[in-house]
Amino acid sequence: MKGYAGKMLLVDLSNRKVEDMPVDDELAQNFLGGYGVGSKVVYDLVPPNVDPLGPENVVGFTTGALVATGAPCAVRTTVVGKSPITDTWGDASSGGDFAVEVKRAGYDAVFVKGISENPVYLWLHDNKAEIRDATDLWGKETVETEDILRDQLSDRRIEICCIGQSGEKLSRIACPIIDKGNAPGRSGLGAIMGAKKLKAVVARGTVEIPVADADKLRELTREAFKAYGDGGDLRKYGTCGGTANCVSTGDCPTKNWLGGGPVDFPNAKAISDENVVKYRIRNVTCRGCVIACNGIVDVESGPYAIKDAQKPEYETLGAFGAMCLNDNVESIIMCNNICDRYGLDTISAGCAIAYAIECYENSLIDKSDTDGIELTWGNHEAIVAMTWKLAKREGLGDILADGVKRAAEKINGSDEYAVHVQGQELPMHDPKMGQPESWPRILGIVYQADATPGRHTATIDNRGMALRATGLCTFGGGPFGGEKLTDFLKAATGEDFPNERLETIGERIKCMRQAFNLREGFKGFFKLPGRVIGDPPLKTGPLAGITIDADGETLEYYKTIGWDENGKPSRQRLEELGGFEKVIADLY
């Protein structure tokens, strides 16, 4: 099938071996790419109940069916493996140009198992793969690591996915960083790289990915660019443009999920839209995208002066801002930069700080625990200082670095303050908002029923899952509605993928990711904490008095898709979907 490099790479760091694995048509047709192919391969490679930080776990770096074909906005890297934060299936997606270079280096995906004796990085280039020494890179920040590797390899166009010191120190909320600021942030997958002593994966290639109809692909791309127009508010602001509105409507949680939105955080405008982009010195775009939602910012003076930092986006502004009642945008820019340099998920890090503030305010910890930091609501100096400690695993930061669930096991009496699902801190969208059919309310099901819990970018829509497996960015997906995705896939691969087939592929991906968790012994669905569902309900703000029946809605969803109350797909349906022989043997 066209559109693919045609092979994947399997690396065993314990034995320092690299070998190619074919991408046969059945695998490509059934799972497309991304976390589709990733879930199938990892399920086959990883035995049940392994230690996420042990040698038997696998970390995978996957591209997608449309990546490097010329299709616009098809750039997403999806990192996969058993999550160190949830001990279940883990995946995380990121923009940037890394996936394009991996595929042009000749690989549709890279999977790494084992543990190296010494720090190493992988060097992928034109159908070759090498394990190289990274001892000189260990202990370096991500930005410095990228600069050193580009100098060593004498090529400014190489693409790098690397960890910082947080991943090296096995922080369970650590993530790899791409292009100095793009983060496949969730699931704690940076800790897997750290455990394996895998500092980075580096790619550069000139392999041309064959497509079925290059002329048609160019025609469709031109149409898509017209549809994107000038990029609108996404180009003007990125996602930071929605922060104030999300707080005012109750979509964005405040005060560690206890706040009444604008009642407790009235100055959300200070960390939204113009008050963020006024620091921007230039827009940044991923390859093949005209939206350019990302940006680089400078803070010229003051305690948080910094050059060439990534512009913070909505989730980061919500986590370090609204959740902590912090309206100092320059401090959030600094926190975002710390997370980028050390390799931390900004959602989990900001939520961990909010949890720690509530612990401090309720006298479960004091200055003797915080090394003198007065960890109070809205104290931006304290929030930045504790973010440094978290990144470096120093003092209280060492406890927070593994997420709020594990922190609550060490800080007696703090369980109520640790807002998480299966160990994963929740993103900045409240499922109590809106009507049952609206996106925020549907998130109550998504947070509980997706194989990776507590994820706002997850979906229960099968076609949406298939779209993600192509490597397309969600923001660039607008022109791929209706039959357009089918048209793009036809031009790239030569295969017909009508909507019905895409729905089936999405269902297959959903079942494969779920099967991983079932094999781990997981049953039912992940449970949302009381604060998130409104038990007890908030007393103030736009969501006051609201309680949702997330459990009942999730069970109804299971019935709708033909899963039993334990979240188990029927044997008959797995047989009908095809490609589940090993799963059926394991589960039945």
Counting DSSP E segments of at least 2 residues, the number of strands comes to 16
CATH architectural name of the largest domain: 4-Layer Sandwich
Mean pLDDT across the residues is 96
Query: Mind summarizing the main beta sheet?
Result: 6 strands, mixed
Form type: globular
Largest sheet: spatial strand order: 2-1-6-3-4-5
Structural class: alpha+beta
CATH class of the largest domain: Alpha Beta
The percentage of residues in β strands lies in: 5-15%
Rg computed from alpha carbons, rounded to a whole number of angstroms: 22 Å
How many helical stretches?
25
CATH topology of the largest domain: Aldehyde Ferredoxin Oxidoreductase,  A, domain 1
Ends apart, CA distance between termini: 33 Å
Low-confidence stretches: none
- What is the number of independent domains? 3
Instruction: Look at the structure and name the CATH superfamily of the largest domain.
Output: Aldehyde ferredoxin oxidoreductase, N-terminal domain
Helical content, roughly? Answer: 25-40%
Structure, briefly:
The chain has 588 residues and is of the alpha+beta class. The strands form 4 sheets. The protein has a 6-stranded mixed sheet with strand order 2-1-6-3-4-5. A 5-stranded mixed sheet has the order 8-7-11-9-10. Strands 12-13-14 form a 3-stranded antiparallel sheet, covered by helices on one side.
What's the layout of helices and strands?
Layout lengths: L6 E6 L4 E6 L2 H7 L2 H12 L13 E4 L14 E6 L6 E6 L3 H7 L4 E5 L6 E6 L2 E6 L8 H11 L6 E4 L2 H4 L8 E2 L10 H7 L2 E7 L9 H15 L3 H6 L5 H7 L24 H4 L2 E5 L9 E6 L6 E5 L3 H7 L8 H14 L3 H16 L5 H4 L9 H13 L3 H5 L3 H5 L11 E2 L2 E2 L13 H11 L12 H8 L14 H10 L5 H21 L10 H4 L16 H12 L9 H7 L3 H7 L1
Helix pairs in contact: 1-2, 2-19, 2-21, 7-20, 11-13, 12-15, 18-23, 19-21
